[in-house]
Amino acid sequence: MKQVKPSDALGCKYPEWIVMVVSRDTAEKPNVMPAGWGMICSGQPLCVAVAISTRNYSCQCIEDTGQFVFAWAGEGQEELVQQTGTTSGRKIDKFREFHIPTSEPAEVMVPLLSGAAANLECQLRHEYPSGDHVIFVGEVVAAHVSDPPIAKLENFDGRFAVARPAG
Fold first, then answer.
1. Alpha helix stretches (DSSP H) within the chain
2. pTM for the whole thing?
């Protein structure tokens, strides 16, 4: 092992799952952004955590409404990841601008992301400031999977691959 700058070691994190975080503002306009820093953080109750920059519109939306959808990006959503990751929901309606298909949620007031491998409807349980990000912990109150199944996307530092079981 050799010592390097922490920023140099970050390249070792790839591949990472691409989580699409869907939220809405207080006027009920939906927003979506890709996030690399998301995970399951509890089994009982089932909870997920996602870190979002304090500058992102999604951060404000989740703080204001207490709800979000945690969706694993699916095969075929590469362009959507690029589009929604390079624009701000403060300035445009991403769903209208990019013609993003949605499905109806069961428990929260945030649309599901059609074409995702899975959607987890979340009720905000905890919020932790963490430097220039906020870690949101949401309890999963409803879950949806693609039928037929859709493979998840992985991020390789801006390049995408599809996750499929070996063999």
1. 6-9, 57-65, 78-85, 94-97
2. 0.94
What span, in angstroms and rounded, lies between the C-alpha atoms of 95 and 103? 12
Q: Which residue has the tokens 């999963």?
A: 140
Token digits for 11? Answer: 């390249």
Asked if the model's pLDDT at residue 162 lies above 80, the reply is: yes
CB burial string 109-130: b at 16+ within 10 A, e below: ebbbbebbbbbbbbebeeeeee
Tokens matching residue 63: 């703080």
Domains, the chain: 16-151 (2.30.110.10)
| CB-based contact 145:77 (threshold 8 Å) | no
Q: How many CA atoms lie within 13 A of 155 on its CB side?
A: 22
Task: Please write the tens of the pLDDT for every residue from 92-126.
Answer: 999 999 999 999 999 999 999 999 999 999 999 99
Name which of 137, 32, 125, 160 is nearest 87 in CA terms. 32
| 165-48-153-117 Cα dihedral, nearest 10 degrees | 80
Average pLDDT over residues 34-45: 95
pLDDT at 42: 97
pLDDT at 74: 95
